[in-house]
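User: I'm putting together notes for a lab meeting next week and I want to include a structural view of one of the chains we've been expressing. I don't have a solved structure, so I'd like a prediction I can at least talk through. The sequence is below, exactly as it appears in our construct file.
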Amino acid sequence: MTDPLTPIMLPPPKDVYQEGQWLMAALLTWLNAEYLPEPANRTIAERVSQVFVRQRMEGENDVGCLVMAILTELQSFDFSESFYGEFTVANAVGDLLFDSLGIDRCCGRSTTLDAARLGTLLDGHDLDPSP
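Assistant: Thanks for the context. Below is the predicted structure for the 131-residue chain, given as structure tokens.
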């Protein structure tokens, strides 16, 4: 029997709203770069940020649980005007968080964005979300 994986935890937030802004900007940058910039991308990034902030305020630090919460919330989101769906967006959030923490995801790494361009969740790096 294999041992369970150790959860990847974010440190407790110092400024949950700053984290939400970082995630919104990083996700919007990724969405706009992965396919085409479209108005729905901003709405998606804003919704994800709201869910992320709420979860962090409730004490959630486990990246897997954060991704699942975002996935669950996005199942009721209307993606009809977007190239994306809830699974793609939730997986992108996980990847962005891993990149921010310096965790090598190995296979499947998107070549769309340089992780250094996104800054990190912990350093408060400002990011220009324009395409």
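A couple of points you could mention at the meeting. The first helix runs from residue 16 to 34. Helices lie at 16-34, 39-57, 63-74, 86-100.

User: Perfect, that's what I needed.
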